[in-house]
Amino acid sequence: MQLIEIAELLTSQPAVLSSLVVIGLALCLIGYRIFRVYSAVIGFLIGVLAGIYIVVNYYENAVVAILASALAGAVLFALIDEFGLIATGAVFGYFAGLYFLPEYQIYALALAALFGLINLFVEKPMTVIITSVLGASSIALAVHMGITGMHIYDVIADPRRTFDMIFSNMYFNLLWFTLVITGIITQYVAHKEEVEEE
């Protein structure tokens, strides 16, 4: 199988939708428990972006540079929880800023910095809320894409429209809100049971 065939398979509609739903359910229901894995994935993705930057500007061997930086990012984020906490809070703050004030990107950057720092100091509640929101958003986006036939490339082309897609009508609003509340309650109940068992 050629590299281009693998890329087409991974970006096919069924693969993207099922990935969004599975990742969304995991984040929504057990996001705090799997935070180290989630953090490593964030580090891997940031490493891939750093590797692409290195390849474009400095290095010729693309595969080696991208894989090395991706693995380094994954290991670094898995070992140092604070990096994952900052990145999670920053992504949440950035998208919240884009949603509420889309014309003023500077506020999105300020909210990203603010939420990144807040997530360091109020780790448990913020991580539970953020992973529930991100998981619910992933599932609602997958449902919207499945119903409308929209492809992942349409979402990547303009990520600011993601919230408009998720909240496009009352049913999506209800789905998203129900998933967020269910995720928060499930994560807190699971944590409470863990504490009681110890």
- H and E string: HHHHHHHHHH
Mean pLDDT: 83
Whole-number tally of structural domains:
1
Q: How would you sum up the major sheet?
A: none
Query: Roughly how much helix do the residues carry, as a percent range?
Result: over 70%
What amount of the residues lies in strands? under 5%
Termini separation: 50 Å
Which ranges are low-confidence, i.e. pLDDT below 50, for 5 or more consecutive residues? Answer: none
Helical run tally:
10
Total DSSP E strands: 0
Structural class: mainly alpha
Q: Report the principal-axis shape.
A: globular
What's the Cα radius of gyration? 18 Å
Transmembrane segments: 12-30, 37-56, 62-92, 128-150, 171-190
Membrane topology: Multi-pass membrane protein
InterPro entries: TM7S3/TM198-like_dom
Pfam families: TM7S3_TM198 (PF13886)
Explain what this protein looks like in three dimensions.
This protein has 198 residues and is mainly α. 85% of the residues lie in helices and 0% in strands. It has one domain (16-197). The chain contains 10 helices and no strands. Helix 3 runs antiparallel to helix 4 (62-79), helix 5 (81-100) runs antiparallel to helix 6 (105-121) and helix 7 packs antiparallel against helix 10 (170-197). It starts with a helix and ends with a helix.
